[in-house]
């Protein structure tokens, strides 16, 4: 007999046989390891969504080689995908990432992950161990033809797992296709265990096996001895922390302002060059807003952890950089909405002359921003973890076309 563990939120009965004998059933993702048996320890969770691809990430307690099996129907037939780099299948690792390409937009796929233990890996001999597989879950690819959808934005949870879980559990999930974590979900990045405990595991408990979260890097996530590994856990299609995403009537642009302080600040230990990094993004942003796809999108929404602003403290240069360099480009590009965090309180800045020609909504440490995107209207509703309304704004689709070129500065 074969064990089959289906996700509870899926309707119907799963008939997909897993590769496991009943004596070794698939563990519920996120549950603590109870023995030394091969197990999936975190995930699988959905990352890097697009109209034609998605990446699935998980960890195991022992080194494995892994694959993802996926199909249009829970009954199959299943295709199998592995990750290949430089001619080698990813193997002998406990962190598994498999990108599925060639997918159809707006299409639901059923998937499970399978890892096979590598007991030893020597020059002339590889000893294989047991298999472990996840329950079957499903995800849906993004689709620019979708008439309407919703997304959630949370930020600055700073490893407050109880608060994050409270927010996720009380959120209105109807029509939600993407969750954005808009920076500083971690206080610093020291270990895989910390990334899992603070972000992945609570997300798995509520949605992350079937809905992607998009991790926007905050300044705190540039800190700590493990911070250079963050993209291994939250991979992106561009391989960068800045990129665009398209879904329904929205073109998203995700940017990374890096650390809030000047690179020469002693707190940065001489280990950063964010000045060059943000300048490269300025050039990239210029090319993005000149694209037809940007100009023709019904709505343009940007996510940047640091809000534009000026402070009296001369060390704190980055928010001013965003204000002086990115805001004018986003103005000329006809941005509709900028979503920020960082200051730990909710704020709404409507469009104003001489500054931002778009709405800025800044989430707090205890807020969930829900955006309902329809063909002619964005509705931005922000509630606290206790359900208290912080604000609701509506942004109609602009009548005038976006400018075709950025103003020269
Ligand atoms: Fe921050």
Question: What do you see in this structure?
Answer:
The protein is α+β, with helices and mostly antiparallel strands and 409 residues long. The chain has two domains: 40-140, Immunoglobulins (Immunoglobulin-like), CATH 2.60.40; 149-396, Metallo-dependent phosphatases (Purple Acid Phosphatase, chain A, domain 2). It is 16% helix and 33% strand. The strands form four sheets. Strands 1, 2, 3, 6, 7, 8 and 9 form a seven-stranded antiparallel sheet that branches. The model is unreliable at 1-34 (pLDDT under 50). The structure holds fe (ii) ion. Fe (ii) ion binds next to loops.
How many strands, what sense, and barrel or not for the largest sheet? 7 strands, antiparallel
Query: What is Rg?
Result: 22 Å
Distance separating the two termini: 70 Å
Low-confidence stretches: 1-34
- Indicate the CATH architecture of the largest domain: 4-Layer Sandwich
Structure summary, number of beta strands: 21
The CATH top-level class label of the largest domain? Alpha Beta
CATH superfamily of the largest domain: Metallo-dependent phosphatases
CATH topology of the largest domain: Purple Acid Phosphatase, chain A, domain 2
Which series of helices and strands comes N to C?
EEEEEEEEEEHEHEHEEHHEHEEEEEE
Count of alpha/pi helices? 6
Count of spatially separate domains: 2
Average of the residue pLDDT scores: 91
Bound ligands, named by name, code or SMILES: fe (ii) ion
Strand content: 25-35%
Helix share bin: 10-25%
Outline: globular
